[in-house]
């Protein structure tokens, strides 16, 4: 008796691959228009890079978590879904550790350094803001200096702007370490401007009280969970799509258990996972080339919980920064309504490479020592400790999002939203506004749904004209 089973045939107007914020938003919009939708998710849960979980009895947001005032698409979804938010704790002084290793308290956005360096940081912020204002987040390749800015690394471009190394290090921190999670030599100045433009300005990225304003009660994964609940059995888990068979007439998504024949498909996963699917016929040459120039960054998100938020008693907000520490930034991440205190910190790019080569105990010790450099020796003794390592997740393989290598934006950016026959690709990784954030993922979901609905309407779609299932050869 053979162990091989024949996949079940299903039909729908649209098949969505990936039950993250983009895929579920698109599916929700399409269903609201009366179209039939099936969402196929490889994991045993919905949410993608949004995940709220209990570790040793402590609730942690393993993935994305913050909400900022400019994220209007996300805010609209939270309001529509009835998900309340609360402010991140920020009362008190922040901490900066400079090149000399000394911890210095400060308030405001400019890190405490010598007066010359502080003035240079402010000047560079103004330079970045001016260039950002000229950058369309939906089409950064149209910037007047796009080619020039896209063929020089952000690190080398900063060197042309200032001789002050500490000022350059601090400006780079907000893009390289804190956002793209790649070394500043690995992406272009234009990619840096896209990151800033997607948040409204570079000043917004510098302002932690703006960019990390609020959290969702119960966790940001509440968004995809609520969307999936509304979609019901149209969302099918544990169904990695192995193959997409497509033509101008339609597409069939093949998993180990299902064959979903549809008129159109949305591949709503990070770009580094596109090639986990076999395409028949194969994708156009340029699409494959485009995908090879996009890659995810690397970051370890560190969660450390203590019986009390001891730093508050010391007059600290919990906010800390340093381009010279393993943990380049950290914040008070205490959950709504809890008496315990939680710190969240981040270790990115080459620093993360070095730590991930260590055994877990040594890695933990070094990370906690870095936290202690900001908050004192009590930070080295958490009651619960956890590291979010998205690079080890089979269906993510990095964090926070994908970005182009040098020259990639001007070479391929204008084509990243171009459909291939009935197949569309989309996620926060290729969003404009809200790039690499949940806000961008939701915007992409709305955009994809609008485009598909318009296509099906123009084709006179009535929900019945779907391609016949193709037999497995």
Describe this protein's structure:
It is a single chain. The protein is α/β, with parallel strands linked by helices and 473 residues long. Among the domains are: 145 residues, FAD/NAD(P)-binding domain; 152 residues, Polyamine Oxidase, Chain A, domain 2, CATH 3.90.660.10. The protein is built from 16 helices and 24 strands. The radius of gyration is 23 Å and the shape is globular. The two termini are 20 Å apart. The N terminus and C terminus are likely disordered.
Determine the strand fraction and express it as a percent band: 15-25%
The parts where pLDDT drops under 50 for at least 5 residues are 1-5, 461-473
Q: What share of the residues lie within helices?
A: 25-40%
Structural class: alpha/beta
Identify the CATH architecture of the domain at 51-69 and 85-109 and 210-215 and 298-399: Alpha-Beta Complex
Sketch the major β-sheet: 7 strands, mixed
Report how far apart the termini are: 20 Å
Number of helical segments with 4 or more residues: 16
Rg of Cα set? 23 Å
Q: Give the CA-based shape.
A: globular
CATH topology of the domain at 51-69 and 85-109 and 210-215 and 298-399: Polyamine Oxidase, Chain A, domain 2
Major sheet: arrangement of strands: 9-8-19-20-21-18-22
* Overall pLDDT level: 95
**Count of DSSP strands:** 24
Q: What's the CATH class of the domain at 51-69 and 85-109 and 210-215 and 298-399, please? A: Alpha Beta
Cofactor: FAD
Domain Amine oxidase: 22-452
Family: Belongs to the flavin monoamine oxidase family.
Keywords: Oxidoreductase
